[in-house]
Amino acid sequence: MVAWSPDPDGLRGRVALVAGATRGAGRGIAAALGEAGATVICTGRSSATGSGTIRSDYDRSETIEETAALVTALGGVGIAIQVDHLDSGQVAQLAQRVVGDHGHIDVLVNDIWGAEVLKGPPSAWNTPIWQHDLDVGLRILRLAVDTHLITSHHLLPLLVDRPGGLLVEVTDGTAAYNADNYRISVFYDLAKVAVNRLAFSQGHELAPYGAAAVALTPGWLRSEMMLDVFGVAEDNWRDALTTRDGLPTAPPGFEASESPRYVGRAVAALAADPDRARWNRRSVTAAELAREYGFTDIDGTQPDSWAQLH
After folding, report:
1. Residue 148 near residue 111 (C-beta atoms within 8 A)
2. Are both 192 and 252 inside the same structural domain?
3. Do 45 and 58 fall into the same domain?
4. Full residue range of the structural domain in which residue 157 is found
5. What is the pLDDT of residues 253-273, one digit of tens each?
6. Span 148-176, mean pLDDT?
7. What is the secondary structure of 54-123 as a DSSP string?
8. Whether 35 and 171 share a structural domain
9. 96 & 238 share domain
10. Do 232 and 247 have their domain in common?
11. Strand pairing partners for 43?
């Protein structure tokens, strides 16, 4: 265990926008920015009060309003705005609203995904492209890549109007790992490689404005969906390591999993670093940044599930 606690005023006065903040890493990132005192605009499709015509690909209960409330409860200011980031018009309206309400954003997090169900269970992985459902594969790419491009197009002008802005592209696997390892399917593989490259290419374009882009990957994430798979909750997740009917609920390696707050604290640490530009165009893990900045997961540990894969 490492003795560490967040600085409740580390990002006080900063405005962040987390695109895809409904659940998983997005909610964890919004929460960690909140515990550092930031104002966090939480966007996504799943809303308790918004339009019912904007629907997630998941049939789940989590909402952006819950995420915004968590941000506020942790010491920040949470703001929920329903947006489908595949709809350029909706993202353009989001940008106009943010300009009117805040004038500027200091941190933009592209965490939009939404294809966890579409990628299929492990039994469907390694399906050749000619046997894969083409519509499903193209939908994965749209959710994973088009959303990020649309979001950056409309929101980066709010980040580059003054020096110091930070763009975080959230993906699965570092550029180095993904370059040498096939990931689930041609479509999933391409999506995750593309997001790493987005941070590299956007970092090239942001540098002249004094801004930086970083590709960030969590490790084995204990998202709400993952916890449901193993029949546990965050407060008893280690129960999945014990045997039931002679077999463990979770496969080997789950002991090194991490809560969504861990990758969130990585984003907060980057945002609070006055020398954050040193990370521009790089691809890093939450664990790597934990070692650099000293933060911990909510249980006081510094897990690194990627280390087990090398």
Report:
1. no
2. no
3. yes
4. 15-221+259-309
5. 899 999 999 999 999 999 999
6. 97
7. S--SS-----HHHHHHHHHHTTSEEEEEE--TT-HHHHHHHHHHHHHHTS--SEEEE-----TTTT--GG
8. yes
9. no
10. yes
11. 19, 81
